[in-house]
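PROTOCOL LOG
Step 1. Enter all chains and additional molecules of the complex.
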Amino acid sequence: MAVSNETSELKAGTGAAQAASGAKLSALFAGTMGPLIGLALLCLALALTTDTFLTFRNILNVLDQVTVLGIMAIGMTLVILIGGIDLSVGSVLALASMVMGYVAYPDYLNLGVPVGIVAALIVAALCGLVSGLLVTVTKLPPFIATLAMMSVARGLANMITDGSQIVGFPDWFTNLSIVRHFGFLSVTVGLMVVLAIVFAIFLNYRATGRSLYAIGGSAEVARLSGIPVKSLTNWVYAVCGLLAGLAGIVLAARLDSVQPSSGVGYELDTIAAVVIGGASLSGGIGSIGGTAIGVLIIGVLRNGLNLLGVSPFVQQVVIGVVIALAVATDTWRRRRQ
Amino acid sequence: MSTEPRQSEGPHNGLFVNGLSKSYGPVQVLADASFEVRPGEVVALLGENGAGKSTVSNIIAGSTKPDAGTIIWRGKPYSPANPAAAIEAGVGMIHQELKLLPDLSVAENVYVGRLPMRGGRIDRATMNAKASAQLKRLGLDVSPERKVRTLRVAAQQQVEIAKALTLNAELLILDEPTAALGGEETELLFQQIRKLKAEGMSFIYISHRLDEIAQIADRVVVMRDGRIVARHERADIPMRTVVEQMVGRSVERMFPKLSPPGDKTLLEVENLSSPERSFNNVSFSVKSGEILGIAGLIGAGRTELVRAIAGADPISSGAVRVAGQPISLSGPAAAIKAGVVLVPEDRKDQGVVLEQTIGENLAIGNFDHVAPNGWVFPKAVQRFAEAGISRLGVKGRPNQAVSKLSGGNQQKVIIAKWVSRPPKVFILDEPTRGIDVGARAAIYDVIADLARSGMAVVVVSSDLEEVLGLSHRVLVLSRGRQRGILDRDEASNVAVMELATS
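Step 2. Run joint prediction.
Step 3. Record the structure below.
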């Protein structure tokens, strides 16, 4: 969070001018020193214990593996920033990818992949918007509203093909996640990076972005200050849904197939990444930079444990421990301030 | 009357409070409070909001720990660690906001946490019979099986008292027990208090309604700014004396000199009513440069009224005009655009985002100024914040978290958020609540300056001295109805209190 970082810098006795330039530098990774150190230690440990971790090829692998999680985590960051939660992202991902497959695939509507992508994004954004309206109009707690959407979207995803998967997309589409331009950058990784930068700028330098921090800090203060809390909340859930849909398309490109059972449990990974990145579930605190680190911690951990030959079951245990540790450290640090 | 602390070694077996003090951060809310309550006696604790009555009660009832001081209860040192320990020792408190479980029955509420059991199951027959006996003792004819939600507030309060009786309370603290009661219900409560008193029970009775004190209290303790300023051995003292003691300092000294208002009417409120009837048919107008005070007891509808004018809550009928133009009350954004701003009652929950910086708090609500085309530049926010900080004399830096500021400085941050627009109508709800006495004068100066710069200013306050010292005119509300508007020269403590309690 920009706030705590700036104040701690001030406390450290740096001048106001320095604090201002420091604020600029730290804007992207504001308030994320703890997670950043954790990530560095993790990388160091893996570099020492394996000979494959610190290779160019493996780093690119990690980036490829986190694209789906990374894109969803951006939307989740916005939702958590305003004090909400979105449990439906995994299901919306599945629904969006099924819509895309259904619209694009020759055996079904055969309208081509581009039309499929547009349709998928529209459906995903609508799912998010409905969640938002359930929160702002029906006054459901976000947990319940998105829990309902989680079930509805999963059901719809299954209904489209009666539960069967759709396999095989044009080469240009699957190449989006395979071909590495300039020797390192696939389109999907590039998309994730661009989105992260765009949303980081949005959150730090746009009035609407700053308003989200105010809503999370205190929705009533924000409302009495003239911020349109309800409509922004609707937008945030719609954007979160849209990004979940986009993640579904990325997943389809990576797997060259879509299936209604994909994305199960992704909402929890996504929330974990955002929380590890220093966001507060009560809202008002968090940043895209922090979330990026959270995503990388999860990605590096999975990758490293694979390299070390640790079973997936043990991996789950380790990730759970890391979540608890990360948040406990953060809470402890805040309390000490 | 004596203002000296009494000897704490008395002959009786009641409550002795000796030198209790309590501070929250830099704000001392209770300083060296000493008094006693004898068995079978009702002691009235009087004082304005923030005088320290609740703090001292909470300490006695075990929900707050004092920084210093001791209590002797029934001849033994008494320092309850929590409300349960206080109840164990026979001390109960009935809070103004009743703490009942609305969806449980009357009997379940009376015995919650110690339900009578038989053979591993709740012994409902015994529970209902016992609860019924206690309710009868209070003269209350209510089925013990009825859900508390379905009872009137007065009956709910008696359920709380019945609960305290079954807990063998010997000292009961009643915090504003009549705030939500009608005349007959109040009379019933008084009868019950007299009856229990005759059985040897002691009471600490907190109220704003001075007329009740003479009826029910044996002795009176007056508090102001966290200190006990007077002890009266009898309750039939002139209201004027008590009010003067509650208010204390001479009125002229603290408040800035007011400039005469202008001619232009800036705010007109016409027949405004709320959907919940918390205020009804209120009409008034405020001129440029004028400060209108709104006085009334808690629950009179003051906050609800000003929130509605600022677009924060919906209205059911009526109209608000600013500089002659009707304004939309669809939400705070519309009101702010029309030039109506509100400094809300609850600073920490409604006024500032505590964990954000002064700069961020000032930027919220001023993005149209600090963010041209929607781009927020840290430098622009910094400049804007520095301007606001220097104009209001906030002791802080733009990058400082608001949570680190004192209450007075937080309040200035909220005022600074709005002054630069500049608004036409500036509404402040309880502008000095929870703010150190010393810092209040600075807030008063700021408010007088707002008026002097040509705004129409509305100040809501439970602090009578504040309303009288700060306002050109005073509007008095009682139970949602407008009881009158007094000019500065006719607005006295007594005149306002008479209207407010009518």
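Step 4. Note key features.
Residues 251-339+422-502 of chain B form a domain with the Rossmann fold fold (CATH 3.40.50.300).
The CA atoms of residues 311 and 332 of chain B lie 5 Å apart.
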